[in-house]
Write a structure and sequence with these properties.
Helices cover 25% and strands 26% of the residues. It contains 4 helices and 10 strands.
């Protein structure tokens, strides 16, 4: 798992939201895909589409990219084109403000921060646990990489899982 690339993705999404882009792309990796799907599941982004270097076709009515991987015009995944694969993310806005606020990395490439269930309970209550600040506002989320995938902190407490703290959305 490369946290350097995740730091680039976080800063890219922050810049794309500030620039008011409707569609942006990030490099395709398993970590990026799982994080993008977690963000989509929590309602921060509208769509996640795997594709090539060119943007996927847009749905004529909804205005979002088609969520189907095998869309006409997108070549199938092979060993020769795996380096050019991209994840195309549809960004959401509400009253001309981005839904995805500030995405910040908690674990750094030089210092990985892990947390257990007891520490997560303190963080969810708004208290500080070691180097992880508490969740203060209702729209704030903390994403944890567990052995069951990337989950939000509240889901980890429900499932009694700890793991590596990846990023925070404010």
């Amino acid at each position: 798992m490369s946290l350097v690339n995740l730091a680039h993705v976080c800063s890219h999404l922050n810049n794309a939201c500030k620039a008011r882009l409707g569609l942006t792309s990030i490099p395709h990796s398993k970590l990026h895909l799982k994080l993008a799907l977690a963000l989509q599941n929590d309602g921060y982004i509208s769509s996640v589409v795997r594709g090539g270097p060119t943007p996927p076709p847009v749905h004529p009515i909804l205005g979002n990219p088609n969520p189907i991987d095998e869309v006409e015009g997108i070549e199938p995944l092979t060993q020769s084109n795996i380096a050019t694969r991209r994840l195309w993310l549809g960004l959401k806005y509400w009253q001309s403000e981005p839904v995805l606020g500030k995405l910040s990395l908690v674990s750094k490439p030089t210092r990985r921060v892990t947390i257990d269930v007891a520490g997560l309970r303190r963080v969810i209550r708004g208290e500080r646990d070691n180097t992880v600040e508490g969740i203060r506002s209702p729209g704030e989320s903390l994403y944890i990489s567990t052995d069951r995938g990337i989950l939000e902190a509240r889901e980890c407490v429900e499932k009694k899982l700890g793991g590596l703290v990846l990023c925070r959305v404010r």
